[in-house]
Amino acid sequence: MTAHDMPRPDREFLLGGDLTIDRLGFGAMRLARSGLQGPARERQEALAVLRRAVELGVNHIDTAWFYRAGDLAANDLIREALSPYPGNLVIATKVGPLLGPSGRPEGQCEASGLRELVEENLTTLGLDRLDLVYLRIGGRSEASGESIGERFEALAALRDEGLIRHLGVSNIDQAQLAEARAIAPVAAVQNHFHVNRQQDPGLLNDCEANQIGFAPFFPLGGGPDPLDAGRLEPIAKRHEATVPQVALAYLLARSPVMLAIPGTGSIEHLEENMAASRISLTADDMADLGAPR
Fold first, then answer.
1. What are phi and psi of 258, to 5 degrees?
2. C-alpha to C-alpha distance for 72 and 264, rounded to whole angstroms
3. Could you count the other beta carbons within 10 Å of the beta carbon of residue 5?
4. To 10 degrees, the CA torsion angle through 8, 12, 16, 17?
5. Checking DSSP bridges between strand 60-62 and strand 90-95, what pairing results, if any?
6. What is the pLDDT of residues 147-165, one digit of tens each?
């Protein structure tokens, strides 16, 4: 890799040591439906969002085979909209959760079942190898502290076979990250984190020390931890920006390993989110938002 090819720390990250991605990507959770329980999207609208995302420079898309609403699935939409894929596009996916009768993730797959889930992702995305596969632990609750070794070993074996390029872990704590790293290299962590929710800064510190990407889910708030708009609004006014844009700009400024993956099913919101990369928060802005000094 030449100096010209090296990633720019303000905008790019070298994932796994060999994939340069923009640190502002796209999350596919809201492609098939609005939120975890909302109505299904219009197929053509979702396809248009994906194509516009790539036009705007997105080269990191985060998905999962269980992002679906009935017959409308994020992986199928990604393949239909973007295949054959641009050469610089990195697609990350997650395995571990199983769909329950409600159609939402309600259980966890054992190690023996992970191959089937990986192969399902390969088929639905139309790929021979997955760029990044996260082992997602648990449901929507906090990291449980359970051992992840057997399941991560199963994914590492699939990596050795060539089905996966890089491995990640999601919804984990520091001990679980250490357990995974003792088995195989970890390229990225995906945990619940945003400007008003930073309960485990030690995990982010570990990622920074080891050049592991950190991709927050719900980067614009969600569930029991919505954004505190009152804190963000004065900064948004200073920058002539929106509250979501400031929340994303905060993440990008918070750490050089942060990989923001906001999701939407709206082109308008997509364009708003992508414009956040042009906002440069000051040291005073970051202090007002509670960033550690």
1. -70, 130
2. 15
3. 8
4. -20
5. parallel
6. 999 999 999 999 999 999 9
**Which entry of 67, 85, 134, 250 is annotated as an active-site residue?**
67
Compute φ and ψ for 227, nearest 5 degrees. Answer: -65, 145
* pLDDT tens-digit map of 89-104: 999 999 999 887 776 7
What is the three-class DSSP state of 1? coil
What angle separates helix 174-181 from helix 201-209, to the nearest 10 degrees? Answer: 30
- Would you state the pLDDT for residue 164? 98
At residue 282, what are phi and psi to the nearest 5 degrees? -85, 170
Pairing of strands 130-136, 164-170: parallel
Smallest CA-to-CA distance from 268 within 45, 39, 42, 11 is with: 45
Q: Nearest CA to 246 among 209, 285, 293, 284? A: 285
Q: Which of 152, 215, 141 is nearest to 178 (CA)?
A: 152
Amino acid identity for residue 195 in this structure: V
Q: What is the DSSP string of 215-254?
A: --BSTT-BTTB---HHHHHHHHHHTT--HHHHHHHHHHHH
∠ CA 162-137-218, nearest 5°, is 100
Q: How confident is the model at residue 140 (pLDDT cuts 50, 70, 90)?
A: low
DSSP string over 188-222: EEE-B-BTTB-S-HHHHHHHHHTT-EE--BSTT-B
Neighbours of 6 (CB within 10 A): 11
Region 188-213 average pLDDT: 94
Residue recorded with tokens 């796209």:
26
What residue type is assigned to position 73 of the chain? Answer: A
Residue 229: count other Cβ atoms within 10 Å of its Cβ. Answer: 14
Token pair belonging to 262 = 């906001």
Query: Is position 85 annotated as part of the catalytic site?
Result: no
Q: Count the residues in the chain.
A: 293
